[in-house]
């Protein structure tokens, strides 16, 4: 990875707290997905589901589920993504893992709910992280966040489905005037060991 790409996606990228009044196009969202879909997941299970909230009506629907500290930056974002995961991701495994479609049996049935949930949540979270990298690669800024009622979002946006919410992410063009000072990160020796 060249320094310019690594800078764009990681070292120079920032989590945003405010937005410029500049739209995000459908083409950018399609390009973002076309990048993120190639990120690896276990058995290619691809459990993430993405809801792109673009209209003020859609964001108003989300607003009651937000913690107060997230309302302004969420409502002003050109796009807010609900990153979810399908608890029944394994129904698509025969299509997504065609060289061994029987792996579906690892996740369905009595006593397998815990492993199915862990697999869906873990891999859906990975895909959410790929979405952030992909968004930055197509020139968008991001504001990933928790701080919302998962139960409310699930009811409002995923009612009657097997999809559950994981996290939210604002997308657009960040307002540099609203950035907080960059937070510190752990040094290698604080976060890593050799075995």
TrEMBL record:
<keyword id="KW-0521">NADP</keyword>
<keyword id="KW-0520">NAD</keyword>
<dbReference type="InterPro" id="IPR000415">
    <property type="entry name" value="Nitroreductase-like"/>
</dbReference>
<keyword id="KW-0285">Flavoprotein</keyword>
<comment type="similarity">
    <text>Belongs to the nitroreductase family. HadB/RutE subfamily.</text>
</comment>
<feature type="domain" description="Nitroreductase">
    <location>
        <begin position="19"/>
        <end position="157"/>
    </location>
</feature>
<dbReference type="InterPro" id="IPR050461">
    <property type="entry name" value="Nitroreductase_HadB/RutE"/>
</dbReference>
<protein>
    <recommendedName>
        <fullName>Putative NADH dehydrogenase/NAD(P)H nitroreductase FAZ95_25325</fullName>
        <ecNumber>1.-.-.-</ecNumber>
    </recommendedName>
</protein>
<dbReference type="InterPro" id="IPR023936">
    <property type="entry name" value="RutE-like"/>
</dbReference>
<dbReference type="GO" id="GO:0016491">
    <property type="term" value="F:oxidoreductase activity"/>
</dbReference>
<keyword id="KW-0560">Oxidoreductase</keyword>
<dbReference type="Pfam" id="PF00881">
    <property type="entry name" value="Nitroreductase"/>
</dbReference>
<keyword id="KW-0288">FMN</keyword>
<dbReference type="InterPro" id="IPR029479">
    <property type="entry name" value="Nitroreductase"/>
</dbReference>
